[in-house]
Amino acid sequence: MKQFETSGWAIYKRLLSYALPYWKLFFLIIISMIVFAATDTGFAALMKPMLDGNFVEKDPDTIRMVPLALIALFLFRGVTGFISRYGMSWIGRNIIKHLRQDMYASLLALPSQYLDHNSGGKLLSLFTYDVEQIAEATTNVMTIIIRDSLTLLFLLVFMLWVSVPLTLLFLIMGPVIALVISYASKRFRESSRRIQASMGSLTQRVEETLSGLRLIKSYSAQRQQKNHFQEVNEMNRAHHLKMSLINNISTPLVQFIAACTLALVIYLASSEHYISHISVGEFVSFMTAMMLLMQPMKRLTNINVPLQKGIAAAGSVFSLIDEIPEADTGKERIKRSKGSITFNHVSFKYGQGDRHALVDLSLDIQPGESIAIVGRSGSGKSTLVQLLERFYSPDSGEILLDGLSLDHYQLEDLRKQFAVVSQDIILFNDTVSNNLAIGLTATDRLIEKMIQATTSAHAIDFINQLPNKFETTVGDNGALLSG
Fold first, then answer.
1. H or E element: which one contains 397?
2. Rounded Cα gap, residues 377 and 359, in angstroms
3. What is the torsion angle, in degrees rounded to the nearest 10, for the CA atoms of residue 371, residue 388, residue 418 and residue 478?
4. Fewer beta carbons within 10 angstroms: which end of the chain, N or C?
């Protein structure tokens, strides 16, 4: 799979573009977050009238006002908190749905060469593990970034209003924390990419084991396969622990710097110089605001891990979405071909290997002819059929259908001209009828054709014995049917 080369911000900006259809809800969420963030500042501000008015001045109006204000404050907090959290979750899951749709559409359009070089397990990991990392980055991360940043802003403005010198002293830790976070961010993203790669290898190994379990047991290869799985499992563990190490060093370090600054502020604020200039209520309001800053600061410093995971995962997902689809330059439409097939000096080899699967092959097949192509394994029989359906293109020579090069036909029309029964039978976990009529629209005429076809193939008897006949589910790759 190609590496998605772009900056973290560019990837995240593209990810956020998937939220544009929901901008009205997003606007409501932002308003809710603003109100939610303001409630922390409101709580800190209430400390001044509560202490100065209630306990020092014994003001009756303030005594009545403070409890009501407190109830209203937490009512707003509860409602706006629900709107922002649930709304972001709703948008996030819709983003994931559309991402998976785009990934699946890209998967269906991928050329055969791409699938030759990328395992099914790694692609499956993109649809499961990687996408869920993005879900975290588009819901919890975005909520914390917006809401807690606003909370910090409001609290800092309030602190500046109470005491500019003490607030400026508190802010000296900003550049130091920024340097720690910047260094950790690079490490987090590198570790996230390695974790994604190891998850792909892990999924691939499990997928191969599930599909080949009987074969593994037949050859008593359990120990060998267990050792292979242990290697990729250990690699995954090591990468996760490395990320955990970086996180568990950087987060306490940031919090320790903040705590040192907080202790210094408390010490200076308690000195005679400041105590004589501010009331008890103002001092407690300032300290409350400063303490309330710690939780959003902690969440913002911790958000780096899921954010970098999400960006790395989004890079992998977008690299799949942006893969160049299978070339379809043909313009000719065809409903039913006559069946004349010609190979003119066709040569072909897979990838960059030296060995050719076909060399200077010339062949003429007339309509109505029955041809058997035989040969040892690897002699190019399957390749010949795949070239006919344009899963690959010849390195040299030309293939004609009804006298016209295959490249001139539209792919969908071309492939409808061939009925292929492969040596590797694939059945989808769906009904018998849907497996028989794959790619076709259900009609009464189609049902008649299915009955005719299964009768000719001597399959109608066992189909009629199934619990729901043609509507019976066959299981994963036909596991519920007899061989």
1. strand 396-401
2. 16
3. 100
4. C
If one counts every other C-beta atom within 10 angstroms of the C-beta of residue 8, the result is: 17
Q: Angle at CA 434, nearest 5°, toward 430 and 440?
A: 145
Tokens of 27: 């606007």
- With H, G, I as helix, E, B as strand and everything else as coil, classify residue 396: strand
CB 481 within 8 A of CB 432: no
Residue 75, both tokens: 């009512």
Question: CB 380: neighbour CB atoms within 10 A?
Answer: 19
Q: Is residue 112 within 8 Å of 186, Cβ to Cβ?
A: no
Q: Are strands 404-405 and 396-401 parallel, antiparallel or unpaired?
A: antiparallel
155, 41 Cβ separation under 8 angstroms: yes
Tokens encoding 178: 């920024």
Which residue type is seen at 282?
A: E
Walking along the chain (483 residues) 10 residues at a time, the average pLDDT comes out as 59 85 91 90 78 60 72 87 89 89 86 76 80 81 87 88 77 67 66 73 73 66 78 82 75 73 72 65 78 77 76 85 84 86 87 76 87 82 85 86 87 83 72 76 72 83 83 73 62
Please state, in angstroms and rounded to a whole number, the distance separating the CA atoms of residues 274 and 194.
52
- Short-list 470, 399, 400, CA closest to 432: 470
Q: Cβ neighbours of residue 390 under 8 Å, at least 6 residues apart?
A: 406, 407, 411, 414, 415
Look up residue 438 and give its DSSP letter: T
* CB 163, CB 244: distance < 8 Å: no
Tokens of 276: 């004589």
Distance CA 84, CA 28 (A): 8
Separation of alpha carbons 327 and 110, rounded Å? 9
CA–CA dist 1, 120 (Å, integer): 12
- Which residue bears the tokens 């999400």? 310
